[in-house]
Specification:
The two termini are 18 Å apart. Helix content is 44%, strand content 19%. By secondary structure, it is of the alpha+beta class. The protein is rod-shaped, with a radius of gyration of 41 Å.
């Protein structure tokens, strides 16, 4: 056996192993104290990259859940205000029904009805100004798509979150075909002979019918008066025009190709070309045109921007009555312009860029509701309704019904957005949060049972290494025995 004192190889090996065991012991203590298997990049570079990415996703999903819950709260606040507006509209409709009871109402009663209608309109406008979520106004148009039309007959109606904001000068509106109403013009005048013979008129419109027979001895004016009263009482959405030559024309109140009617008369040529044969009126026409050079769909007098275009969902009403030398195509002269301001709220509902959703809120100002609605009194918006006359009360019913439809449509859109875009997304986000947290835990968290086993082993090895190093340091002492 060789004895050396300059280099104690056994002690050097013992020290090396002691250092190794000390490092392993330190790692075990770190994992047990932190509860994590990956504490620094050196513990697992690839695992660190994956787990850090998962951590970022988990944190982003957690914030997305909060964002979605806040969005739901905002929509519920908006709907609560819309419910109040809808209740006020219901009250106004009831007042218009009461005011239409012309036979029993006097001037004071009508004034009281109009006063209450005016108060309801003012309340709607007050709700419009005051409804807010935090400091954000909800129903004044600042949280939706708004616009303004310029040019004779061009009027902005509405837009959706898909409609892109226009430049300051707006989108150019070109009209190739005017919206028209279905009409039927009689060729022959009403004579006393026809009246005395019992002229029969039958009209069918929208699933409703009317049948009229003239009374012998009545004058033409009496027949026209009774026919007009019968027409109004039957609920047909038609208007009768009597010309100076005692010919009659029937015109549908609504514009567009989907509104039509049929008429017959017992005298050929008075209304129908053949006696006692239903004849369809000349069809109405939908407006044709473009918005901002993009495809637009016509419905009555309303142009709607085509899907997938810059003007997707933009509705423009054109009430012009002439198309002087317009022609079709992109070279047709401009009818006007419409400028769009896009303020629809955008909600970040996902953890990554582009994972957002948007919904537009309605401007419930009474000057913005029920615009472009055909009515006998000529009201341009809900704010103008006046129930102090029969015509005004009947027209107020039409305007209020249209305003209620607008409110119900936006409430339905908000409900669908809340149910499908937010609440369904919330459920998915919570599932993703659970699964991604589990994935990160599998990669990064320590298995405490396994780490305790390793700690026990490393602890024993540490104590053994210390003991063996002490023994190795004693080996050179044998040289002293030789010297003795």
């Amino acid at each position: 056996m060789a004895l050396r004192i300059n280099h104690n190889i056994g002690a050097i090996n013992g020290h090396r192993l002691l250092t190794l065991n000390d490092r392993l012991m330190t790692q075990s203590l770190e994992k047990l104290s932190s509860g994590q298997r990956i504490n620094r990049a050196s513990d697992g570079p690839a695992s660190l990259i994956i787990s850090e990415q998962l951590r970022a996703q988990v944190a982003s999903i957690k914030q997305s859940i909060t964002n979605s819950e806040t969005a739901v709260s905002m929509l519920q606040t908006s709907e609560a205000a819309l419910m109040e507006v809808n209740q006020l509209l219901t009250n106004m409709r009831q007042l218009a029904i009461h005011a239409s009871n012309e036979g029993a109402n006097d001037k004071n009663m009508l004034e009281a009805d109009q006063l209450e209608v005016k108060n309801s309109l003012e309340t709607v406008d007050r709700i419009t100004r005051q409804a807010q979520f935090g400091t954000k106004k909800l129903l004044d148009g600042s949280t939706g798509a708004n616009g303004v039309g310029t040019g004779a007959g061009v009027e902005f109606l509405s837009a959706t979150p898909l409609t892109r904001a226009s430049a300051v000068e707006g989108y150019e509106v070109r009209v190739f075909q005017l919206g028209e109403r279905a009409r039927l013009v009689g060729k022959s005048a009403l004579t006393q002979e026809m009246i005395d013979r019992g002229e029969q008129v039958a009209i069918s419109e929208g699933g409703k019918t009317m049948h009229f027979i003239s009374t012998k001895g009545d004058s033409a004016e009496q027949v026209f008066g009774k026919l007009r009263a019968e027409l109004e009482g039957s609920g047909l959405d038609l208007r009768m025009v009597v010309h100076d030559d005692k010919t009659v024309e029937f015109v549908h109140n609504q514009y567009g190709s989907k509104f039509d009617f049929s008429v017959s008369s017992s005298t050929a040529g008075f209304l129908s070309q053949e006696a006692l044969t239903m004849q369809r009126a000349s069809s109405g026409k939908d407006i044709e045109g473009s918005i901002g050079g993009q495809f637009a769909v016509g419905d009555g007098r309303v142009l709607t921007g085509g899907a997938g275009t810059r003007v997707d969902g933009l509705k423009v009403l054109y009430t012009g009555t002439k198309l002087t030398d317009r022609g079709a195509g992109p070279d047709a002269p401009s009818a006007g312009r419409v400028t769009v301001y896009q303020n629809s709220p955008i909600f970040q509902v996902g953890p990554n860029p582009g994972q957002s959703a948007s919904v537009g809120l309605l401007n419930t100002n009474t000057r913005n509701l029920a615009r472009g609605v055909v009515n006998d009194a000529g009201y341009e918006n809900l704010n103008q309704i006046d129930v102090r006359s029969l015509k005004g009360a009947q027209s107020a019913l039409v305007m209020v019904d249209h305003a209620m439809n607008e409110l119900n449509s936006i409430r339905a859109a908000m409900g669908a957005f809340q149910k499908n875009a937010l609440e369904a997304n919330l459920r998915q986000l919570r599932v993703n949060f659970t699964e991604l947290t589990n994935a990160e835990s599998v990669i990064r968290d320590a298995d405490m049972a396994e780490e305790i086993v390793d700690f026990t082993r490393n602890n024993i090895m540490m104590q053994s290494s210390v003991a063996m190093l002490a023994q190795a340091n004693q080996t050179p002492n044998h040289v002293l025995s030789l010297l003795k």
